[in-house]
Amino acid sequence: MATITSKPETLVGKRIRRREDPRLITGTATYLDDLKLPGMHHACVVRSPHAAARIKNINVKPALELPGVVAVFTGADVKEVGPVPCAAGLPGLRVPHHHILAQDRVYLVGHPVAVVVATDRYIAADAADLVEVDYQELPAVADPEKALAPGAPAVHPQWPDNVAFTFHQEGGDTAKAFQDAEVVVKQRITSQRLIPTAMETRGVVADWKAGEKSMTLWSSTQVPHLLRTLLAGMLGMPENRLRVITPEVGGAFGSKLNVYAEEALMAFISMRIGKPVKWVESRRENFLCTIHGRGHVDYFELAAMRDGTILGMKLKLIQDLGAFLQLLTPAIPTLSVLMMPGLYKFKNISADIVGAFTNCTPTDAYRGAGRPEATHGIERMVDILAAELKMDPAQIRLKNFVDNDAFPFVTATGLAYDSGNYALPLNTALAEVDYASLRREQQQARQQGKLMGVGISAYGEICAIGPSPATPAGGWESATVKIEPSGKVTVLTGTSPHGQGEETTFAQITADELGVDIDDVLVIHGDTSIVQYGIGTFGSRNTAIGGTALYYALQELKTKIKKFGAVLLDVDEVTLVGGVCVDEKSGRSVSFNQVAAAAYRALKLPPNTEPGLVATHFWEPPNFTFPFGAHIVVTDVDRETGQVSVRRYVAVDDCGKIINPLIVAGQVHGGVAQGLGQALWEQAVYADNGQLLSGELTDYALPRAHMMPWIESSHTITPSPVNPLGVKGVGEAGTIGCSPAVVNSVVDALSPLGVRHIDMPLTPEKIWKLIQEGRA
Amino acid sequence: MKRKISLTLNGKAVADEVEPRLLLIHYLREVASLTGPHIGCETSTCGACTVLLDGRAVKSCAMFTVQADGRQVLTIEGLAPNGKLDPLQEAFWNEHGLQCGFCTPGMILTARQLLNDNPSPTEEEIRKGLEGNLCRCTGYQHIINAVKAAAAKQGA
User: Fold this and answer.
1) Would you call A197 an interface residue with chain B, using a CB distance cutoff of 8 Å?
2) What's the domain range around A559?
3) Residue A586 lies in a domain
4) Which residues of chain B lie closer than 8 angstroms to A674, CB-CB?
5) Chain B from 42 to 101: CB within 8 A of any A CB
6) At CA A23, angle to CA A21 and CA A28, rounded to 5?
């Protein structure tokens, strides 16, 4: 028996290339559309071309006559299937019955009306064109403020005011704050509708086995277990006979954190035809039928003293909900309200939300989910206040930040911020850009008639969502660790990563805790028949909650390993170092593999100990985590064209401890790209009649390689006390921090022309017009 | 109705009979079972379906299979035929040039053509060269690093 005392090198904190990548860079990963089952049929959905219409008649006969078509189903066939669920509950919430196929009326362009099933993808598409639907068009409304105006067309006839809910939240004494204020600034600020646009569209394969009375359903989803529970309810089948598998998922950003009509529809079809069936969303369908994000019209008021001290904030938030409530639709704006205080210590807020139905695609969680909207509003308002008071935007922020000794800091919205040093990332970023000399340069540029801007955002966010009482479906996460008899380690996580790299970060954590080689660790996720129940991947929760569940499961196993090690060495106690159980007194040791084998061979069991080395932990977080940071953006605006150029993008983020810096950098870059997309280019544009004009990638301006600036990313590290890993989450930070920094920068550039606010996206046309007005 | 085609696919001669309307991407994925190239838009805007046709990067959703008759097609599966990764594949791995991986096969093949034409591109040339391929995850920065690293390794 060998003697090993040297502590092995730890992997947590190291820049390790991802273990997911070999299959992805060789084209051998299996995404949804790569699945092929024997006898598999193909479905194509017939969708409404109108935003509002009565269905007078559907003639499926011409479609059925096409050779290769096996069935066509319409709303009449699927009445027994339960509605598409909304899990978010708010007092008085009006939830429209959301059938998986339209009944007698359609409510948005893209509303599924019928579904064609054929032996071949091309035939299914041909046949879908042959389904004749006779519509009687009705008036539609596509703008939330217009929907709330008297006399607007009713999206749902039973609710002529188009109000799905109202929600009020109050903290402190806002009336007094506004009475005491020496200055009040007000601004209408929009966060436009965005289309999440994961590069892989959604898709479903359903395979009903009548003999086994069981269904396997593959879906490109972020939440396989929740999907199983809710889908089983819709279909009226026992949950344990439904197996949901997520194959490789090609991006999601919240858009696959849902239960969609097509998931139930494919299950229904497979049961009816007795064959597996596949449906893959076209990009056009993705734009119409997968959830959108944002869609806010916000009226902000900020009360302050002349020295820049912020006293309180009021918000009237109009949320464009779309025609139906998807899984979390009405909950998203409530997250915006929770975020209202930002990083600032003022204790008085008052918020009113109105959720408005429109004849548009439902909105729901898209990267940041309510928090980018809030941060954009707060950080714009702070700049507007600074401009009003002629204060420096950095100084006004530093003045109002929560103090370092105030944590845990209870906000006016009832949150308890876990830890923070809010001035640190801002001061770091200011130093990095050499703020003072930037301002001098700006003065000179202005004298030459050039439009140069410097914009700051100091953001906070709510991550690791979240404690169960704060979520609609449980906010814990699970992990199982199995040490196999050979000593190899299998980790089953209830999270469902799809690009975030947990197959790597979780292997790092596991290898460090057990002292085994990282190549001996396999991380598995996304199969409800293999993995214990879990919640899934969203809200920057994977590592902070799923990683913590893993950490505790590993602690339990370490205890058990040591018990078996002690039996093997015939001593009372051993230490576990570098995967080896060591008797410190004699120096004798047994290897990890020997212990694993002994635990299963079970010739001699430690007292009160069962054979095997398996541990499962369900971890309920006691709080959210609250990452923070500061982004500074330097822009140049072309006077002749209105074109905005980002000269520098400096991001200093604090996401707590970092498991893998390479992966964290990737999350920041990607997040910033989506924030820049919102700030400068992206917008879901609807015509008044509810037609989506930006309905394809050709009409929706996603960031491309030549459009992106170089992102200078660095970190401060303030560990979270909420979990033993000290991590906070980083998936959404870039998006949340980005857009206000960009808009603040461009408004700063245009401020000599009297510009005080610009709504996103900052298109050249919009900027050019402002420059022309400023000249006049 | 069906037309006979023969082409060189990842170095091997293949012959098939296909419908004239069958898109090349569907031929590759459904008939030849090469699912490395992906379908992201079917309007030639995203580049997930990019393959090399006679050494040039093309979007295989925007051409018919019959147009590939008599030509050489290389998909991501053919880039490392003996298991030895192309320097670009290695660099995408080392530099974390991918997250969900859906755009990656097309991105790597476009970058392959870029480096074939210009063995040591500047950052601006890389950005310009990859503008036809969308990535929603990475913000492109690690992709740029990967292409730079592959160029450096090739030149070494």
Assistant:
1) yes
2) 21-27+467-619
3) yes
4) 136
5) 42-43, 45-46, 48, 75-77, 79-80, 85, 89, 92-94, 96, 98-101
6) 150
CB contact under 8 A, A705 and B46: no
pLDDT at A690: 98
Question: Do the chains contact at A665 and B142, CB–CB below 8 Å?
Answer: yes
Considering just the CA atoms, what is the radius of gyration of chain B in Å? Answer: 15
Using the Cβ of A539 and the Cβ atoms of chain B, whether some distance falls under 8 Å is answered with no
User: Where a domain ends, among A565, A587, A619?
Assistant: A619
Give the CATH number of the domain where residue A426 resides. Answer: 3.30.365.10
Quote the CATH superfamily of domain B3-78: Beta-grasp domain (3.10.20.30)
Closest chain B residue by Cα to residue A713: B141
A111 touches chain B (CB under 8 A): no
| Domain map (residue ranges) of chain B | 3-78, 87-155
Q: Which of A199, A502, A662, A663 to mutate to test the interface with B (most CBs of B within 10 A)?
A: A199
Cβ distance of B103 and A199 shorter than 8 Å: yes
pLDDT tens for each residue of A743-767: 999 999 999 999 999 999 999 999 9
Given the structure tokens 């308890």, which residue do they identify? A416
Whether the CB-CB separation of A775 and A398 falls below 8 Å is answered with no
Q: Which 3 state secondary structure label does DSSP give A572?
A: coil
Digit-coded pLDDT (tens) for A632-676: 999 999 999 999 999 999 999 999 999 999 999 999 999 999 999
Are A477 and A538 spatial neighbours (Cβ–Cβ below 8 Å)?
Answer: no
Residue A657 in tokens: 């401890």
Helix axes A661-676, B141-155, angle to 10 degrees: 120
**A495 lies in a domain?**
yes
Predicted pLDDT of residue A776: 61
- In chain A, whose CA is at the least distance from the CA of B36? A27
Chain B residues within 8 A of A499 when measuring between CB atoms: 99-101, 137
Question: In whole angstroms, what is the distance from residue A7 CA to residue A515 CA?
Answer: 9
pLDDT band at A3 (very low <50, low <70, confident <90, very high): very low
How open is the CA angle B76-B80-B86, to the nearest 5 degrees?
A: 95
The identity of residue A265, as a single letter, is: L
> Is A1's pLDDT higher than 70?
no
User: How does the average pLDDT of chain A come out, rounded?
Assistant: 97
**Encoding tokens for residue A562?**
């040591």
- Whole-number Cα distances in Å, A377 to A299, A336, A371, A655: 9, 10, 10, 22
> Side by side, which strands form the sheet with A53-59?
A105-106, A53-59, A132-137
Q: How far is A201 from chain B (nearest CA, A)?
A: 7
Helix (H) or strand (E) segment spanning residue B130: none
Alpha-helix residue ranges (DSSP H) falling in A357-433: 371-389, 393-400, 423-433
Report chain B residues whose CB lies below 8 A from the CB of A25.
Answer: 76, 85, 89, 92-93, 98, 101, 104-105, 108
Q: Which amino acid is at A213?
A: K
A594 pLDDT more than 50: yes
CA A700 to chain centre: 20
pTM for this predicted structure: 0.97
Nearest to A299 by CA among A255, A351, A247: A351
Report the chain B residue with the minimal C-alpha distance to residue A252.
Answer: B100
Q: CA A529, CA A216: separation in Å to the nearest integer?
A: 10
* CA dist., res. A372 & res. A671, Å (int): 11
Query: Which residue, among B46, B52, B12, has the nearest Cα to B24 in the 3D structure?
Result: B52
Restricting to B residues 94-123, those with a Cβ less than 8 Å away from any Cβ of A are 94, 96, 98-105, 108, 123
User: Domain check: are A739 and A709 in the same one?
Assistant: yes
Q: Which one of B19, B93, B100 has the shortest CB-CB distance to A199? A: B100
Please state the CATH superfamily assignment of the domain spanning residues B87-155 in this structure. Answer: [2Fe-2S]-binding domain (1.10.150.120)
What is the number of helices (H) and of strands (E) in chain A?
19, 28
